[in-house]
Write a structure and sequence with these properties.
Layout lengths: L1 H15 L12 H21 L2 H4 L9 H13 L1 H13 L7 H31 L4 H11 L1
Helix pairs in contact: 1-2, 1-5, 2-6
């Protein structure tokens, strides 16, 4: 459960931080772009903060209930956090922009970055579960850049 707490905090930060800038309040392309960048930074960082490797939250066998829940979490449940932030912003008229433009840019920019961020998150957790140290995992990703 600790793992999901760290993820929810990362979700909320990646959804609300772009709204603190004037450019991010434009809420279409800029908001989607900022949310994408923040997701790619904060969600993998949440893997280092959560101690899922010690609580064995990452299953090692092929198909379990946990993996099915993880699939639904990544593709359907977790995007609701950002979409809820957007809905609140639209309802409070904090942004006078096009909902169609928002949906388009979120589908093109944000959703693929969201899935990639969760993939990196799960790779980091898998490495920690298999005994790699956090410094080794960071060195692996540093060498990829």
């Amino acid at each position: 459960m600790r793992r999901y707490t760290a993820l929810i905090i990362a979700y909320l930060l990646s959804g609300f931080l772009p709204l603190t800038t004037q450019v991010g309040k434009n809420f279409e392309y800029e908001y989607a772009l900022f949310c994408s960048w923040l997701a790619l930074l904060l969600i993998p960082t949440a893997a280092f903060i959560s101690r899922a490797s010690q609580t064995n939250e990452v299953p090692k066998n092929n198909l379990t209930t946990s993996k099915i829940f993880e699939f639904y979490w990544i593709f359907f449940i977790s995007p609701l956090f950002i979409l809820t932030i957007a809905a609140i912003t639209f309802w409070n008229s904090l942004c006078l922009c096009s909902p169609n433009g928002y949906i388009f840019w979120m589908a093109i920019l944000w959703y693929p970055a969201w899935i990639l961020a969760h993939s990196i998150h799960n790779l980091i957790l898998r490495g920690m579960t298999n005994g790699y140290k956090k410094t080794h995992i960071m060195a692996i990703f540093w060498d990829l850049t």
